[in-house]
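Figure 3 (text version): C-alpha cells given as input.
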C-alpha cells in the first residue's frame, strides 16, 4: 500500500488529530486493500494464497462493520455511503 494513499485515507476518516486506529479508519484501510486485491485477481486468477488473504481481510472488515452496526447504526450507514459498499 502506498504511504500517500494510506495517509489520505486516514485523513479522510479520522475522528480527531492523531487518530490512526479508530474503527472507521480500519474499515477504510481494509476496503482499500480489498479493492487492490480484487484488481490483482483480474490478471492473476490462480493466485490462491492471495485469495485466502483476501477472504481473511473481507472477514475482518465484516466483523468491524457488524460491530459498528450494533453500537452506532448512524455511523454504520455513513461509512457504507462514504465507501460505497452496499446499496
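Below: residues designed for each position.
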Amino acid at each position: 500500500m502506498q504511504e500517500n494513499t494510506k495517509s489520505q485515507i486516514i485523513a479522510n476518516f479520522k475522528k480527531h488529530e492523531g487518530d490512526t486506529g479508530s474503527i472507521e479508519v480500519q474499515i477504510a484501510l481494509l476496503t482499500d486493500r480489498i479493492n487492490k486485491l480484487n484488481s490483482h485477481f483480474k490478471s492473476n486468477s490462480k493466485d490462491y494464497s492471495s485469495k485466502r488473504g483476501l477472504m481473511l481481510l473481507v472477514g475482518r472488515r465484516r466483523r468491524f462493520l457488524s460491530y459498528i452496526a450494533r453500537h452506532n447504526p448512524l455511523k454504520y450507514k455513513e461509512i457504507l455511503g462514504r465507501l460505497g459498499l452496499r446499496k
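The domain at 21-31+47-86 is CATH 1.10.287.10 (Helix Hairpins).
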